[in-house]
Amino acid sequence: MAEERLRPVTVWDPWVRIVHWLTVVLLALSFGSIQYGNMRVHYLSGYAVLALVLFRIAWGFVGSDTARFGRFLRSPVAAVRHLLEFPRRHPDREIGHNAAGGWMVLVLLGLLLAQPLTGLFADTGYGDYGPLAKTVSGATSDWLTGLHHRIFYYGILVAAGLHVAAVIAYAVVKRHDLVRPMVTGRKRLPEAVAGPRLGSPLLAAMLLVTAALVVWGVSRLG
Ligand code: HEM
Ligand code: HEM
Question: Measured between alpha carbons, how far is residue 150 from residues 77, 105, 114, 144, 157 in Å?
Fold first, then answer.
């Protein structure tokens, strides 16, 4: 069979990549700050995660093709079929999340939204609390504080661990390097594969600013 000619294609826009890697750094900062009892840094990094995730959710509706939920959330049957074919080695032709990975992305984004949202209601009991903690009863705040802990330790850490394990499995089993495209945005794909349509940078900037303003407004409520 003739060799397929490959060309570099931008598969991930800068917004998806910035949100991804900033979130990874901010999660580490959120965890580190709470270990050192620095609540100010904890709140700030948590607000930043919330703003990024709100932006990413909006971008999932109006952004680049590969960022859109409607494009990467395929049927559960397609997801299972993808997993069954996993051990077969063939060249990477995917221009966005694969059929199984898409659902994992939804889970990760859900957890990344729930974490700072519950944090808004969390209370240390020692005079430090999220801006909305006093808008609910003590029992509700205690419950949401408990959820805030559990979502991190049993949700985010487990899901992120599985996510990184999957990325490593793609590299080892299928020889697909998914990390480089998440860094550079580009993948080498056969010329026959059409690249995705990229979203408007102006719209992205406006959504980011709006998300930041919403979170800033919420932070001022307490
Ligand atoms: C706390 C840690 C992490 C979280 C919460 C996380 C979360 C996510 C999310 C939500 C996406 C979807 C991106 C989008 O569509 O906007 C994603 C994609 C991706 N992440 Fe992570 N990530 C984490 C760590 C990492 C690390 C350490 C690596 C590198 C080894 C990595 C590599 C990737 C890659 C390659 C993709 C694209 C996968 C594909 O091609 O479909 N992630 N991650
Ligand atoms: C993605 C962002 C966040 C992450 C990863 C995160 C993570 C955590 C973790 C792991 C703990 C428990 C530490 C422990 O005792 O073992 C914690 C506690 C806490 N977080 Fe967050 N948090 C985030 C966002 C926020 C936000 C936005 C707020 C409020 C503005 C907040 C407020 C609190 C408070 C008040 C506590 C102390 C609860 C207690 O003493 O039991 N967090 N956070």
Answer: 31, 19, 11, 10, 10
In a domain, 185, yes or no: no
* 10-residue mean pLDDT series, the chain (222 residues): 80 98 98 96 98 98 98 96 90 91 98 98 95 97 98 98 97 95 95 92 98 98 84
How many whole angstroms from 124 Cα to the centroid of ligand 2? 9
Is 83 among the domain residues? Answer: yes
User: Does any domain span residue 191?
Assistant: no
* pTM metric for this prediction: 0.96
In contact, 96 and 11? CB cutoff 8 Å: yes
Domain holding 211: CATH number?
1.20.950
129 lines ligand 2 (CB under 6 A): yes
Identify whether 189 is part of a domain: no
Domain holding 176, by residue range, is: 13-88+95-180+197-219
The 3-state DSSP composition of the chain as helix, strand, coil percent (nearest 5) reads: 65, 5, 30
Reading the block at residue 4, the tokens are 């397929």
Residues near ligand 1 (Cβ within 6 A) = 16, 19-20, 23-24, 27, 56, 67, 97, 101, 105, 108-109, 160, 163-164, 167, 178-179, 182
Tally of domains in the chain: 1
Which among 130, 162, 155 has a CA at the least distance from the CA of 42? 130
Instruction: Round to whole Å and give the CA distance between 161 and 155.
Output: 10
